[in-house]
Amino acid sequence: MQLNELEEKITQILPCEHLSVKGDGRHFFVEVVSTAFNGKTRLNRHRLIKDGLKSLMASDELHALSITVAQTPDEWQQRSDNTAKPAFRCHHGHSHK
Asked: Which of 8, 14, 16, 75 is most open to solvent, judged by the fewest CB atoms within 10 Å of its CB?
């Protein structure tokens, strides 16, 4: 399976404000940001994606899928805001974010 094919399948399952798919054709890592996750637990977010891809997984066309991010747009924005903060130095002189 090609990266763009998996991207297309995921966007058919749910609307994506952000989608990143990486992998080698059988093992994939995805980041998904969607309003469809509002009010859902982390487990239910993962189930929403994996349930939509069941046939691909059953046929072994999609061998392994790791969902590294399954967030709402607000959660994604908060994450982005946190990573954009400048580093500070602790009393030991180490840089922290």
From this structure: 8
